[in-house]
Structures are given as structure tokens and as C-alpha cells.
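User: My instructor asked us to take a sequence, write out its structure as C-alpha cells, and then describe one feature of it. I'm not sure where to start. Here is the sequence I was given:
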Amino acid sequence: MSSSDEFIVLPENRFAYTAIVERSPCVFLYGPSGVGKSHLARIAVEQMLRQQPSAPIQSLNASGFAAEFAGAADAGTIAEFQKSYRRLDLLVLEDIHALESRGETQQQLLAVVNELTSRGCMLVWTCPKSPGELVDFLPKLVSRFRAGVMAHLRLPDAEGRRELVSYFAKTSQVSVSEDVVSLIATELPYSPRELQAFISRIDADLRGRKRPVNSDTVRKLLRHEVHAPELTMVEITRAVARYFGVSAAKIRSASRSRQLVLPRQCAMLLARDLTGKSLAQIGHFFGDRDHSTVVHACRRLQELLASDAESRSHLSQLRTALGATEVFSPP
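Assistant: Let's start with the prediction itself. The C-alpha cells for your sequence are:
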């Protein structure tokens, strides 16, 4: 759960890590940015190369796969394109949601997946969404994603953040006390990637100044890091967009695409709870909708939260990512 060589195994990622190191045939890694999906994908590649140095492996972003297919189609070399992928022992395809609405590319990928699956090859996918949240995807392809191990990586809790901060500080040779570790872990409910970046900022700030890393020093840096007590709707929408892998502009648009329903509902509910804005103001911000639309969206999401653990997890992670500790009462 870091960008360094060692992956820090925490309760939030243990299931995913086990699936990778035990070489499950198909592993779908999903969760918000910065939780270690790409790191685990690299571990899968490194592990296979250690065991089979000459194994044919391909690891790339889904957009890269789409670009390769488009190039092959233009050049009339689709047969060669398919052959190059069907010979693989391991295929890693990251950010698979980038293929939404790309029907022809999905058909080509499905053909590759069917061939590799029949030969018992390993497939690793990464995505900010679960398979069930992918829209405009071939049902057979989504079924392939679901047929393997679906591993949800979550943002670490406070104890996990303490462990990560200690590790990042040690590897960066930044000497910090337990009080400072606890302060950072408490004040920054962030992803491992963001925690590591903060330790790097401490290191850069103190380099050459010959002063210790104490609580006062860290608090000064935290003032530039922590969200203001009252979040803005822009901040909330950007966070929701990053989490679900859609654009903030589309969440705010008048579009009624199924892909945007859950992200928009989450953004509206968080805006209602965390900004103190009126329903009319929220509706105007999200596509010039009226207040009754906001009420309906919030109610629908709250009903879903009561029965769906995955939706509760989505909202909990979004609150954590936003540093939300207090909520406003509904208007």
C-alpha cells in the first residue's frame, strides 16, 4: 500500500493482497485512487517474472489497449493484434472503466479474455468502480469480471494510517515521535499515496533547517493540508468524481445517464450534510434542478444505504476522503 517496494498489508487490503500473491486466475481490484491497486498489479507482474522469467506478460492501461486496437483496425492488422494478446500468461489491464461505451474494443477484449481464461492464464483488472457499477459494458465481459475474485480496497482506518505514516517516515529517514505519527494519522484521513506525499513534504520542508519534527512543526504544515471546516460543493463534487471515475462537469450536468445517478446522489447528499447550503442552492448547482429533485435524490440514496452495504461503504469512504467529521442537519 505504498509506491515503494514493500506493500503494507492492512485489514483494508489483505483480501486483495492474498488473491494476488496466491495467483487467483482472475482478480478485479477496485476502490478509490491511492489505495494500492496499481501496486498490487505490479506485484502480480513481478511475482510471475520471478517464477517464469520468460513468461509473456502485458501490463497496460485500458486506454492503451483501446489505442492499440484502434491502430490495428486502421492498419488492417486486427488478427495480429489478437494473436499478440492471446499468447499471454498474464494480462494486467488498469482503469478498465475507460472502456465504457467502447463496444468494439470491449468485443475484442472479450475474445482475448475467453481465450486466456480457457488456458488458465491470470487476469488482473483495476478500476475505481465495482463490476456492477460499470455502465455501457458488454454483460458477458462484466460476467467475466465477476467470475473471479472481486477485491474491494478501502481507505485505511486510523490504526492503518498510523502504521503507514511510521513506515513512510522510516523509509524516508524522517525521524518522528509517536505523538507526531498519531497527529498526522488523525488529522489526515487520506489514502496511503497522499500520506506518503505529506511525509515527503515534511522531509522537503525540514531539509537543511536542522530542526526536529515536532507537533508544532507538523501543525503548521497541516494548516495548508486540511480542508476548511465547511467544504464547498465544488470540492465535494470533485472528490465524488475522482472516486467514481467520472467528470465533475457530468455530475453537475442535466444528463440523466445511469452512470451518473449514484455519483450525483452521493454528491447531493454530501452537499446537503456538509455545506449547510439550502436545497434550492444545491439543486441550482447540480444542473439547475429544483429543490424537490434534491429531496428525492437524497431520499433514494438513504433508502439504498439502509439495505446496501456497498453503497454505505462508498459514502463512508467519500466522507473520509473529504475529512468530514461533522454534519449539518438536513434543511
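For the description part of your assignment, you could build on this observation: The chain has 16 helices and five strands. Try explaining in your own words what that tells you about the chain.
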